[in-house]
Amino acid sequence: MEETLAPPKKFDPNNDPAKLSKISKFVTKRLAANSLVVDVEAPGVQLYVYQGFLGPADCKILIDKIDADAVPSTLYKGTEQAGFRTSYSCHLSRWDPDVGRIEARMSDVLGIDNDFAETMQGQRYQVGQEFKAHHDFFHPAQDYWQQEGPAGGQRSWTAMIFLNEPEEGGNTEFPNIGIGVRPQAGMLLIWNNMNMDGTLNYKTLHSGTPVQKGTKYIITKWYRQNNWLELTTPKS
Ligand SMILES: O=C(O)CCC(=O)C(=O)O
Ligand SMILES: [Fe+2]
Questions:
Q1: pLDDT digit string, tens, across residues 16-55
Q2: What b/e sequence results for 76-114 when a residue is b if at least 16 CB atoms lie within 10 Å of its CB, and e otherwise?
Q3: In the chain, what percentage of residues exceed pLDDT 90?
Q4: Strand arrangement, sheet containing 155-162
Q5: Where are the domains of the chain?
Q6: Where is the Fe2OG dioxygenase domain positioned along the sequence (predicted)?
Q7: What ipTM was assigned to the predicted interfaces of this complex?
Q8: Which of 138, 122, 130 lies closest to 193, judged by CA?
Q9: Ligand 1 mean position to 236 CA, how many Å?
Q10: In 81-140, which ranges are continuous DSSP H helix?
Q11: pTM of the model
């Protein structure tokens, strides 16, 4: 495990600290200028909340889509572990008008071109379901990096929206920094998976803790170092 968690040793254009640092700085400045965005001031991790980002009608639209399309969640090849991610999830197409509209608002908050984002995911956790502690950034020593590296490069920022409030459990926890975020319907949670110098921030380790009562619905959006859409759309 040590080996696979090690930062990249030699320069890899798909995990480029200079580019990632530029994105870190740009987004940080933009978030600081937005009075609706609150800096959680977590030690060693840039973590932000935007309460009431999404209204109840839009939360419901996304919840209905998740219920219609969710299938058991997956993990990257080579990292599969039974019981690690037991939620159900689905892709939310950017070409769907409601999804596109909501994504555009999210990307505008961060100031990143939405084409840099992967297809957004919807997730549903029922009682007992969870996503154990992980990093959202890619570990370049893992096999999946051969495919994911050229397909957009490293993941920079994560944006997540809680669509409802499970009655018990289902917090998003960052064990390295002692922070647990309680789901609040419509709340946008944003964090930087990188340090300001563009290196991987290992303190961003986080989990979706088991839901104890009720159901938890969220959407998760991961931004890449490069233009994900362009790099993953087959050339005709
Ligand atoms: O369910 C959560 O609170 C966390 C989800 C998460 O970490 C992810 O989707 O990458
Ligand atoms: Fe995550």
A1: 999 999 999 999 999 999 999 999 999 999 999 999 999 9
A2: eeeeeeeeebbbbbbebebeeeebeebbeebbebbebeb
A3: 85
A4: 38-39, 47-50, 188-192, 155-162, 216-224, 120-125, 88-92, 71-72
A5: 24-231
A6: 116-225
A7: 0.99
A8: 138
A9: 35
A10: 97-110
A11: 0.95
Question: Does 172 sit in the ligand 1 pocket, CB within 6 Å?
Answer: yes
Lowest mean pLDDT among 13-17, 141-145, 183-187: 141-145
By most ligand atoms within 8 Å of CB, the mutation choice from 118, 119, 121, 123 for ligand 1 is: 123
Q: Does residue 209 have its Cβ closer than 6 Å to ligand 1?
A: no
Q: What CATH number is given for 24-231 in this structure? A: 2.60.120.620
**Per the structure block, which two tokens stand in for 5?**
């968690």
Encoded amino acid at 8, one letter: P
Look up residue 224 and give its two tokens: 């890449």
Buried b / exposed e across 36-63, counting CB within 10 Å, b at 16+?
A: ebeebebeebbbbbbeebbeeebbebbb
pLDDT higher than threshold 90 for residue 235: no
Work out the pLDDT band at 161, boundaries 50, 70, 90. very high
